[in-house]
Amino acid sequence: MSIVVTGSTGQLGSAVIKYLQERNTGENLIAIARDIDKARDIFNGSDVEIRFGDYDEPATLPNAFEGADKLLLISSPSYDDPLRVVQHANAVKAARDAGVGHIFYTSIAFADESELSLAPLHVATEYAIRTTGIPYTFLRNSLYTDVFVNADLAASVDSGEIITNTGAGKLNTVTRDDLAKGTAAVLAGDGHENQTYNFVSSKTWTFDELADVLSRVSGKDVKHRTVPFAEQVEYLQRVGLPEGMALFSASIYENVANGETSRTSDDLKQFIGEETPLEDFVRKSLNG
Ligand SMILES: NC(=O)c1ccc[n+]([C@@H]2O[C@H](COP(=O)([O-])OP(=O)(O)OC[C@H]3O[C@@H](n4cnc5c(N)ncnc54)[C@H](OP(=O)(O)O)[C@@H]3O)[C@@H](O)[C@H]2O)c1
Question: Separation of 74 CA from ligand 1 center, angstroms?
Answer without folding.
Answer: 7
